[in-house]
Description:
By secondary structure, the protein is mainly α. 76% of the residues lie in helices and 0% in strands. It has helices at 4-25, 28-39, 45-69, 73-79, 87-104, 111-130, 135-139, 143-174, 186-213. The model has no long low-confidence stretch (mean pLDDT 91).
Amino acid sequence: SSGPGDEIEFWHNRTIDLSGISNQLVKPEVQNIIEVLQIAKSSYLSPFQTLSKSIQQGTSEAKDNLKFLKTLEDSCNRLVTASPPEIPDILREMLSLIRMIWSLSRFYNTEERLTGLLRKVSNQIIKQCRAHVSLSDIFEGDVFSAIKCLEENIACWKEWHNIYNKTAGAIKRNVHDKERHWNLDLNRIFAQIDAFAQRCRDLLEVCEGQLQFARKDSNGEKI
Length: 223
């Protein structure tokens, strides 16, 4: 699943593509063709102008979105290399920036886009936490370090919920317009990471069973 860095990359590529087309539309050669179509009262002119206007508007939107999303670039880069204990501080910074984008951006301020972005944040957290746990260690009985990692994953998941709730609550208290509150689809944002946290709990039970029945001692020998 894609992370928030992929959202920045998407709007970067979209800006390049649409800007290239927009630049072609204002070339003298194209303007001459438009004048000929106007003189000839061509039926192709109206659809072309509609499409041209749509491209220009899309270019403006892409540039604006990219300008704001690039403020997340540093925190996104740190998130993709972070361990679970390091993630909450990055998320606090990221949510503060996302709140700023929500408030100031002309286009990247819809519930659909915000929900999609926050879901990508959840995806990246899952990726970092999943890489933190070795299943082979668990099933071979080396459970002490695995328990620590799983507990850190669960703590990170809890903090992600807390950070989101605090941000949404602050917006609710400080923004008088109820239409501008974060009334988002929380299931889309958290369903996958909630399921991941439950799997971590299940693995903790496996580790507890290993401690009772198949634990290794400090020399790596099963007891």
